[in-house]
Amino acid sequence: VVVLITGVLVLITLLPMIPQAGKQHIYDFFDVFGRLASWSNKNPGHVPLVYLVHLHAGVYSLFHRLYGMFPCNFMSYLRLHYSMKENLDTFQEVVKPMLEHVRVHPELVTGTQDYELDPSRWRSFEVHDIMIECSKVSLDPLESSCEEDFYYP
């Protein structure tokens, strides 16, 4: 489990650095999320709770990163993957609570799946810009970047 946690944290860190890789690997990233979400829900290896808590935190961060960067594609994946009966428990226990902690992403209204994967979309963004964009859709006080929360003397 420690290897999984390390791997998901590396992926979360790398995604804003290589957004153009989304075009080739986006469904691999989504599958990683789906498998880890299922695994953290079912705990097939009877892993100690402390490791599961850390894994769940990593899956939660991956959810925020994928939703923040690729909302149209990620919502399409979630809709397709969690409409299957065998994945419904994972949706109810893991994914639905995560969805309750994000705002509606503006790209869901104005963007398209193809535009999200267009390399030209990412040219004007630095790594920190992508991370800020991801945090803007979060309702979690630890993840969000609401400008109202900042204090200026």
Automatic annotation (TrEMBL):
Keywords: Membrane, Transmembrane, Transmembrane helix
Segments traversing the membrane: 47-67
GO cellular component, one term: TSC1-TSC2 complex
One example of a Gene Ontology biological process annotation: negative regulation of TOR signaling
Name assigned to this protein: Tuberous sclerosis 1b
Gene behind this protein: TSC1B
